[in-house]
Structure prediction request, 255 residues.
Amino acid sequence: MEKAHVYLVGAGPGDPELLTLKAARLIATADVVVHDGLVDDAIMAMINPAARLISVAKSRSKHTVPQDGINAILVREAQAGHMVVRLKGGDPFIFGRGGEEAEACRDAGVAVEVVPGISAAMGGAAASMMPLTHRDASSAVTFVAGQCKGLTDQNWAGLAGKGRTLVIYMGIATAADITEKLISDGLSPDTPVAVLERVTRPNSRALQTLLTDLGDMIAREKVASPAIIVVGDVVLKSDAEDRLIHIAQQAEALA
Prediction:
């Protein structure tokens, strides 16, 4: 592994056994690791003991280091001759701002490489036995950010519905607004939805309801980030008959 290099490494959704071999090798040999707050402790324990750790943890509306500052850290540490790993939850190029960081490195003349990770959607779907595509239910998948600039101005019509799966990242805090938006853009209030919380970790949960109940369920169950929302008929494919009965009962109660 050459020095003066930045690696944007996906740490996956949490389970350390889901790391790629390359990701594990890089974090075990890095000089500097710039990491998010969502990286699981078990993965943090795999980092080179001699590496210098720089936390850039952030939560909704609270960034310990702004994105421009993170970019500057990566460039500065690489230009100082260090092998730098930017360790991110999930995959760097799926709502991980990896594109911005790669651009900053390239603009500064710093070599940069992306090491993909299993995204929250992929990991959560697998752990919940929920196929994001299924010949009988969905032939298309869309990923959207549930908290972003101009959310209310975006047109989500057609992103979910018959034959389509919609996966919403960072949507827990705005779930009520998302429900209203999807229904106003034409989606049935009775559409099945699932919330996958802390996917692949020991304390993970998979909750199911109908779109019209999404915001209330999140409040009722005290769902906390990190979590994703899955919208569409694939939710009904996720497991056994008891979950189908549960959704049927909810539909009847909400009717």
Remarks:
- The first strand starts at residue 5 and ends at 10.
- Confidence is low (pLDDT under 50) at residues 240-245.
- The helical segments are 21-29, 41-44, 67-79, 98-107, 120-127, 175-184, 214-220, 241-254.
